[in-house]
Amino acid sequence: MPCSGGSSFGLRHNAGFGSLPPFPLRRLSSPPVRVEARALWQLAWPILIGQLATVGMSVADVAMAGHASAQDLAGVALGVSIWHIVIISLMGLYLVGLSFVQGVALASS
């Protein structure tokens, strides 16, 4: 339940949580939210394009294999699903390794 007030930060009462203090809710159109959303979009759009390109390549592979035979289509579909599992796992391991290396570098400096 919002409390009455004229500020751009509405206060919300934490009903049912005992002694927790109220917390501020920012409007989505507030300047800090727009600045952060713009910065996030600048980081996210290359990743989005890369992911769409990967999916598009897989769709093109499956569509081309479908013209050959049902066995080729099944093989390519299986290969695409295995490829996605492998590449996502490798990206995760890369990010973990990168975080570890950065942590060691920062700790030693």
Q: Features of this protein?
A:
2 strands; mainly alpha; extended; about 110 residues; single chain; about 70% helix
In total, the number of domains comes to 1
Instruction: Work out the number of β strands.
Output: 2
Largest sheet: 2 strands, antiparallel
Q: Beta-strand percentage?
A: 5-15%
Tell me what you see in this structure:
The protein is mainly alpha-helical. The protein has helices at 31-66, 70-108; strands at 10-12, 23-25. The protein has one domain (31-108). Strands 1-2 form a two-stranded antiparallel sheet. Helix 1 (31-66) runs antiparallel to helix 2 (70-108). The longest helix is centred in the last third of the chain and has 39 residues, at 70-108. It starts with 9 loop residues before the first strand and ends with a helix.
What is shown here, in short?
By secondary structure, the chain is mostly helical.
